[in-house]
Amino acid sequence: MPAISRYLAGGDTALIQTGLTGFVLTIVYGVIGGIIGGGFFAFLYNRVLGEHHGIRIEAEYE
Length: 62
Fold this sequence. Notes:
mainly alpha, 3 helices, 0% strand
């Protein structure tokens, strides 16, 4: 995925290709993407599907 790496690094492939820096950036983008993606999916599911079918994803169970 060189194109994606180039995009994330602002066009600087050398930044991604330097071992530890690339590894750290991969983790950072992965965590941020996971949080944003997961939160957005849960919000979207609750707003769209939840209202129509009465099904909601709850973050905490009692």
